[in-house]
Design goal:
The complex is a heterodimer of chains A (337) and B (308). Chain A has 337 residues and is mainly alpha-helical. Chain A has 14 helices and 2 strands. The longest helix of chain A is centred in the middle third of the chain and has 38 residues. In chain A, 40% of the residues are buried. With 308 residues, chain B is mostly helical. Chain B is built from 11 helices and no strands. Chain B has a single domain, classed as MetI-like (MetI-like fold, Orthogonal Bundle). In chain B, helix 4 runs antiparallel to helix 5, helix 5 crosses helix 7 and helix 9 packs parallel to helix 10. Classes of the chains: A mainly alpha (337), B mainly alpha (308). Chains A and B meet through helix 1, helix 5, helix 6, helix 9 and helix 12 of A and helix 5, helix 6, helix 9, helix 10 and helix 11 of B.
Chain lengths: 337, 308
């Protein structure tokens, strides 16, 4: 099958998946009862309650309510967030900026360390470094990030006093403009070195915490695919023509071992995304994840719905991009159903 | 029927006699013991399950509800090594050791319930899809796709949020999320086996569908399901503890995630113990089942063995 057909077919399924997800999200939030609660106070008479229900269309039949909500999501009306005391749409960009910054930083940590460790272990198969990286990668999948983050805080924040908590120093954040919403990028644009150091310093621990599990996954994939490519004939050929082992590794083996690793990197994006909820709670990071956690505990349905829809759509798009990229990188892949 | 006697089933695991099956189990057990990491995982699992089962003997149960942390109002925030509280106490006066031990029981309960429910749902959905095929298969698999398009933890979080904070609702939320993989595995197996000649042969000699299902499909699906279920015994506790850490279990429940969350408030004052020990238990629990699950996969599925 042609890659173009494959991409087209995947693109055609995408809206179905998004509609399906939205149906699940809508049904789910209605199972918990009417969302009218967030607009009510104790002094309201039944008549006032009915008026509010009418104003927000909550007295309509469920299918109509669904269409109203879905239409709102598409046109940018995402409802009122009780937790943020503002329209969801209005608070969203700032929080998204904070979360994206964290996720990207964690992704960089994970990719750099994962490929490095995987290469280190895989090229020393069955020797001590290999065993150590394997223990590391197995423990990564089992590590509760909420505990790992707290351990880091106990050591580096409380014990050694090296690391700060939160997203920024109290006044430095205010001192620069924020055109992108990413603190590190904004600091660079403003040319403010103090702010940049402040941003990176605050980002370090949460990024390591969030990236830990992904580092382990990437390490594992990199190791096993490197072990596999190192046993291929073309690697032997490269050795036979007298290339030093270092060059064999760098030019031939590692490059090919990266193909399956790239897929794993893409697919672990969802892992990073869901990890932000916990990491943002622990490090008091003012992003989407902590907002979602608050919304969950206080029954803020509009926020929950917007957050779940947004993350799922993002997740679907990234997965699609990864699959397409993989199909390009490795033509042998079977593009079956 | 003369044709019937000529048709032989292949040597699929469960169509063997009891003797061969016992011998096969012995082989698997020997291989498990030969791999050091799997063995470590197994020892950890046995230890923690023993702790869960023996909890009432190891430490006196709290009355009336042993799954609720006992409070010692005279000993708040005591460090480890205090008399009567070897692992210290929380800021509510809960004994950390009690939480660690009864938390194992809570986790065992959680993982057993969720894994059994999800295996059964997956078995039903996957078998229906694979056997009936056509429109029903298409519909069920699209449903599976939709379920897979929401990240696991966020999905469980949203469900638990809607149902309200309680441990029972965490169980429901996890069950709603975890069945999907089993449905996929079993559907794949059913379709794979349906294509085999011996199933056609069984049909020819007049075996009923149910009979074929029980004798051929189920036994052949067991291996991947066992591997996934072992991994999920760990994952369920990991995600369950994450949900209760966020605040979706009852406060005061003897559960590891709840304890880590309570201990979190005290770390800036140097009280490291209330979070550290329960969190370590979550890690060890998930690690143990991951080690054994990985080991089992390598032994039971020779295709992945070369990758090790």
């Amino acid at each position: 099958m042609q890659i173009r057909d494959y991409v087209l077919r995947r693109l055609m399924v995408l809206p179905i998946l998004i509609i399906g997800t939205s149906l699940i999200v809508f049904t789910l939030t209605r199972v918990g009862g009417s969302p009218v609660g967030i607009y009510l106070s104790h002094e309201m008479t039944p008549q006032e309650v009915a008026e509010i229900e009418e104003r927000y269309g909550l007295d309509e039949p469920l299918p109509v309510q669904y269409l109203t909500w879905a239409g709102g999501m598409l046109t940018g009306d995402w409802g009122w967030s009780g937790v943020a005391a503002a329209p969801v749409r209005q608070v969203f960009p700032d929080k998204l900026g904070a979360t994206l910054e964290l996720a990207v930083a964690a992704g960089i940590v994970a990719v750099a360390m994962g490929i490095g460790l995987g290469t280190y272990g895989g090229s020393r198969r069955d020797r001590l470094p290999d065993h150590l990286t394997r223990v590391f990668s197995i423990s990564g999948a089992a590590m509760p990030i909420f505990w790992f983050g707290i351990l880091l805080l106990i050591v580096f924040w409380v014990g050694l006093g090296w690391a700060p908590i939160g997203r920024s120093g109290a006044d430095i954040f205010q001192s620069i403009a924020h055109p992108t919403g990413l603190y590190t990028a904004d600091a660079l644009i403003a040319g403010n070195w103090t702010a940049f150091v402040d941003a990176v310093w605050h980002l370090l621990l949460p990024a390591i915490t969030l990236g830990f599990g992904t580092t382990a996954i990437i390490t594992r994939m990199m190791r096993s695919s490197l072990v596999e490519t190192l046993s291929e004939e073309y690697v032997d050929a490269a050795r036979a023509k007298g290339l030093p082992e270092k060059l064999v590794l760098r030019r031939h083996a590692r490059r090919n071992a990266l193909i399956p690793t790239v897929t794993v990197i893409g697919l672990s994006f969802g892992f990073l995304l869901q990890g932000t909820v916990v990491v943002e709670i622990i490090f008091r990071w003012p992003g989407l994840g902590r907002w979602m956690a608050d919304a969950v505990l206080r029954g803020d349905q509009a926020t929950i719905m917007a957050y779940v829809m947004f993350t799922s759509v993002l997740f679907l798009l990234v997965n699609l991009a990864v699959d397409v990229m993989y199909a390009y990188l490795d033509r042998r892949v079977v593009l079956g159903t | 029927m003369a044709v019937g006697t000529a048709v032989r089933r292949p040597a699929a695991p469960l169509t063997e006699g009891l003797g061969t099956r016992v011998r096969r189990f012995g082989e698997i057990a020997r291989e498990v013991l030969r791999n050091p990491t799997t063995l470590i995982g197994l020892i950890l699992i046995v230890g923690m399950i023993a702790m869960a089962i023996l909890a009432p003997i190891l430490i006196e149960p709290n009355t009336p509800n042993p799954y609720q942390m006992p409070r010692d109002w005279g000993a708040l925030n005591e460090p480890p090594g205090t008399a009567g509280h070897p692992l210290g106490t929380t800021q509510q006066g809960g004994d950390v050791l009690y939480g660690v031990i009864w938390g194992a029981r809570t986790s065992l309960r959680l993982s057993l319930i969720v894994v059994s429910i999800t295996v059964i749902i997956g078995l039903i959905v996957g078998s229906l899809a694979g056997f009936l095929g056509g429109k029903i298969d298409e519909l069920l698999m699209r449903l599976v796709d939709v379920f897979l398009s929401i990240p696991e933890l966020i999905f469980a979080l949203a469900i638990a949020a809607v149902l309200g904070p309680s441990f029972g609702n965490i169980i429901l939320a996890l069950a709603a999320v975890f069945w999907v993989k089993y449905a996929r595995i079993i559907r794949g197996q059913v379709i794979h086996i349906k294509q085999n000649e011996y199933v056609d042969a069984a049909r020819v000699i007049g075996d009923s569908s149910l009979n074929i299902y029980m004798k051929d499909v189920l036994p052949n699906s067991i291996t991947p399901v066992v591997v996934q279920a072992t991994l999920d015994m760990g994952n369920v506790v990991l995600i369950g503890a994450t949900l209760s850490f966020i605040g979706l279990a009852e406060a005061g429940l003897a559960e590891w995630g709840v304890l880590v969350s309570q201990g979190q408030a005290g770390i800036s004052a140097g009280r490291w113990w209330a979070s550290t020990f329960p969190g370590l238990m979550v890690f060890l629990w998930a690690l143990a089942f991951n080690l054994v699950g990985d080991g089992l996969r390598d032994i039971l599925d020779p295709r992945t063995e070369s990758k090790r």
